[in-house]
Amino acid sequence: MGGDGHWQGLECFAVRPPPCQGCGLLMPPACLSLPQRSCTCAERCCMHVAVQPWEPGTIRTSCFKSLARGAGLATPAEVYGCRILAVELTSKDFKPVVQEFQSIELSCIITSTTTPDPRIEWKKIQHGETSYVFFDNKMQGDFATRAEIYGRTSLVIKNVTRMDTATYRCEVAAPNDKKNIDELNIELTVLVKPVTPRCRVPKAVPVGKSASLHCQENEGYPAPIYSWYRNSEPLPTDSKSNAKFQNSSFILNPETGTLVFHAVHKGDTGRYYCIATNDAGVAKCEEQEMEVYDLNIAGIVGGVLVVLVVLVLITLGICCAYRRGYFVNNKQNGKNYKTPAKPEGVNYIRTDEEGDFRHKSSFVI
After folding, report:
1. How many Cβ atoms from other residues are within 10 Å of residue 232's Cβ?
2. Which superfamily does CATH assign the domain made up of 88-191 to?
3. Helical residues (DSSP H) of the chain, grouped into ranges
4. 0.85 cut: is pTM over it?
5. Residue 306 confidence (pLDDT)
6. Could you give the dihedral angle defined by the CA atoms of residues 141, 143, 149 and 154, in that order, rounded to the nearest 10 degrees?
7. Do residues 128 and 134 make contact, with C-beta atoms less than 8 angstroms apart?
């Protein structure tokens, strides 16, 4: 409120309303949107800014008694009227939601201004960064080919994508108004349909063992909710919550898409598939078979015995072969090597010229 006791952006002035004709309010049309109370037919009514110190900044309705003249005719009384001198904005939808690849209008409406041609700007705020959408009477960036100003100040975006999810700010500057700037924020949400989720189902699990089934999808917005089906029948989030599944022991997390069996039994055998759902649509993965089988204890024990027998036979065979000398090393070593005997009648003589041994025969007569 200003120092003169008036609201900033409001101008009060004296008016002379027409005589009262029937019950109703007698006030300037510019005040009809302000708080008011009904006055009687013998009263005049107007809105004015209270300037009393015990009512600082309040706007109230005053009723003035008419002065009877002649046959009860009302005498016009001078009362206060008001006029808004501020630019003000509003929107038909502050949180619009739209499917991807459709069009959306971001509503920004000027409710009051005395400036004939105010300046309009649109900005996009995403991940803490601000960029221009409409500036200097032109669309900016990629909005130049798929957005336009609708009416006087609203923004229409065509073929929206998931990257358009953001906060958009409408700013209006009106130099002729006392309050010459106003702005509002619009939170746009673009819904994205989920794609086919990736499902992982174990093919075979022995009875009594744990098993985990996984379902994941990363494209949908908002993040989808997951549900699992067995043989086309929906599974609850907890097997204990449904008497139909009392023999099972599983828990489903709808946010992560994980289905965990603590201990499977034969009744858990079946064809499983997952569905991802959000506000934009649904997506389903292909069915996958999970078999739960019994452990053959006798077969396992028999197999172990067969392996032991084979190992014993191999060991016995190696021992017998060793005893019979199949593994003896027949190569001569240095200690066992004997110099061949010199033939009788042969002498080995070394000469300097030859540098090697030579022999000559001698004959005994």
Report:
1. 9
2. Immunoglobulins (2.60.40.10)
3. 297-323
4. no
5. 84
6. -100
7. no
Closest of 284, 272, 214 to residue 248, by C-alpha: 272
Phi, psi dihedrals of residue 357, rounded to the nearest 5°: -85, 145
Fold of 198-293: Immunoglobulin-like (2.60.40)
Q: Which amino acid is at 301?
A: V
- Give strand pairing partners of 160: none
By three-state DSSP, how is residue 19 classified? coil
Here the tokens at position 242 are 């449904």
Query: Locate tokens 């934009």: which residue?
Result: 280
Residues contacting residue 68 through CB under 8 Å, at least 6 positions apart: 74, 75
Domain ranges within the chain, ordered by starting residue: 88-191, 198-293
Asked if domains 88-191 and 198-293 share a fold, the reply is yes
Q: Specify the pLDDT at position 347.
A: 56
Can you say whether residue 270 is alpha, beta or left, with left for phi > 0 and alpha for psi between -120 and 50 degrees? left
Distance of CA 275 to the CA centre of its chain: 17
In this predicted structure, what is the pLDDT of residue 42? 43
